[in-house]
Design goal:
By secondary structure, the protein is of the alpha/beta class. The chain has one domain: Rossmann fold, CATH 3.40.50.2300. Helices cover 41% and strands 23% of the residues. It is globular and about 35 Å long.
């Protein structure tokens, strides 16, 4: 079973994603970026889903911190955001893909599978 970390500060959205993914994936939900590298290292996911803002911290900062750990640098990530310019942000931070909020669950599933297939 593939492992996914979802970094999202909105508990309601995190719960929806947990219900949608927990049957088919081993899922770890993180609500903030505190000790992010240690938490992700202990889980070693195949994919990271991340909101563009975790509180006041931007995804670019969180991803940069995660990528400093050599054993995490290869993990693909998907940016999730309702930001009007999500495509540009995703390109600028080298996201493997992006999902514009609100997104349909079928788009979430398709994006995850596409990114996971490319990372094999």
């Amino acid at each position: 079973m593939n492992k996914i970390v979802y970094i999202e500060d909105d508990p309601d959205l995190a719960n929806v994603i947990e219900m949608a993914l927990s049957e088919n994936y081993d899922l770890l939900i993180l609500y903030d970026a505190k000790n992010i590298v240690e938490k992700i290292l202990s889980f070693m996911p195949d994919l990271i889903l991340i909101d563009n803002y975790i509180g006041v911290t931007q995804a670019s900062e969180v991803i940069a911190e995660i990528k400093t750990a050599k054993s995490l640098a290869h993990i693909p990530f998907v940016l999730c955001s309702g930001h009007a310019d999500i495509k540009t942000i995703a390109i600028n931070i080298s996201a493997s893909a992006y999902l514009e909020k609100p997104f349909a669950l079928k788009d979430l599933y398709n994006t995850i599978e596409t990114v996971l297939e490319k990372s094999i």
